[in-house]
Amino acid sequence: QNRWLNWKFLWNQVTLSTTSSSDSLAAPTDLNFWDPKTFKINEGGTDDEDENLLYTEHDSVKFLVRDTTTNKPSTVILMPDNSIEFEPVPDGVYPIKADYFVRPTPMTTNSEISLIPKTYHQAILGRAIILYANYENAPEIKTQGEEIFEEVYGRLENHELPNQRFSRFQST
Fold first, then answer.
1. Cβ neighbours for 133, distance < 8 A, ≥ 6 positions apart
2. Distance between CA 158 and CA 166 in Å, rounded?
3. Residue range 7-40, pLDDT digits in tens
4. CA angle 110, 136, 154 (to 5 degrees)
């Protein structure tokens, strides 16, 4: 889960609502990072009526005088703590849609299931065999783990990374 930050299985979308005279919103609790180009105001309720928001990082505007007037937001500012602020300050309730990637969660109990799609869970087994073989100094077991891992992991990358559908040209 941790090798790539933008796995498709880590993607999520959120709809937040601004409040009148408040310029900030907290980030979702499972947020790893925002996809900043996806912030939109969705007043009409359909995707056809989405209006893109400009975005900027806090570091780009921290020394500038901010627009504190109240109006429909046109810009979202990504803050260092992953919260977001709006400029100008919202003059009402606006539904804000955005894509983000969730934080990979460590598996700490036997009952937990990985976010990796079930079809590719053999990659977890292959990697576990490799680590076990390293611990036991068992090269023949490590070879078996590497074979399992490489076969399944290549298909996982093809399927779950953006624009990588056939990057490894594996068919099995």
1. 139, 141, 142, 144, 145
2. 6
3. 999 999 999 999 999 999 999 999 999 998 999 9
4. 65
